[in-house]
Amino acid sequence: MPMMPDVARIAELIREAVEAEVLPRFKKLAEGDISEKKPGDLVTTADIEAEVYLERLLMDALPGSLVIGEEAISRQDKTLAPLEEDRPVWVVDPVDGTANFAKGDSCFATMVALCRRGEVLAGWIHDPLSNKTAIAEVGSGAFYAGEPMRVGNPASLAEMTGPMWKKLEKTSQENARKGLGDVPRKIGHYGCVGHEYIHLADGHIDFAQYGLLQPWDHAAGVLLHREAGGFSALVNGERQYRAVQTTGNRLLLAPNEEAWRQLTRLFNS
User: Fold this and answer.
1) What are 117-155's pLDDT values in tens digits?
2) What was the pLDDT predicted at 109?
3) Domain tally for the chain?
4) Is the pTM of this model over 0.90?
5) b/e string for 128-167 if b means 16 or more Cβ within 10 A?
6) φ and ψ at 155, to 5 degrees?
7) Spatial separation of the C-alpha atoms in residues 100 and 76, rounded to whole Å
8) What residue ranges of the chain have pLDDT lower than 70?
9) DSSP collapsed to 3 states, 14-41
């Protein structure tokens, strides 16, 4: 495999793409700049153009690599098959939180992961408006704007905080009545998984469970959380997440393995 690129350099390239194609369009999208890939699933010109821009930069930064972007996959221009191959693959979500971005909400991000044979080697989550980037590389820790990140350390389920859909909240309440644990404190989903992962890795929230496991949504964030000391695994089979895992399972992230087992029992029994 080619040499790992400098993670700080990749962060600079992400910022370059965001400044060229995303920020100039924030709160300035015309009606024709927003469309639907399918009902309720928005895409904007910022998503499309930023992905094209990033593809060029990332492939130049790591010769022999390939880029898989959310928008190219949605158009069926590319497949996820290269993620299984013995070559470096960049996974790109040019604008995570497109619905927020389209309505002028500040909660959106750009996410990039570098993978090989389904394993995530490095990840970047960039917050365009603060111009801060969360970076993780296998075995090197997690950092946000250069500062180390560390997951929270709640003493009990009742002290944990995280996003829950109504169905998950109802299940946890039912299982709590059966004596399977206390119900954690619920917050709403952000509409931007990139910001949820940053808050998981810095201890601002403690847990999250996801059922839609597209690699552009999770590859960078799972590594960031793991390198910040967190524990995550797929609920069915208790295997660690890999970028090739997209269907038929749920991903649960927690501060540590014991908390993960308690949350699994509460959420999925």
Assistant:
1) 999 999 999 999 999 999 999 999 999 999 999 999 998
2) 98
3) 2
4) yes
5) beeebbbbbbeeeebbbeeeebbbbebeebeebbbbbeee
6) -85, -20
7) 24
8) 1-3
9) HHHHHHHHHHHHCCCCCHHHEEEEECCE
Reading the block at residue 106, the tokens are 């500040």
Residues 195 and 260 in one domain: yes
Query: What is the amino acid identity at position 86?
Result: D
- The answer as to whether 27 is a domain residue is yes
CB count in 10 Å sphere of residue 29: 16
pLDDT on residue 10: 98
Contact between 2 and 62 under an 8 Å Cβ cutoff? The reply is yes
187 shares a domain with 144 = no
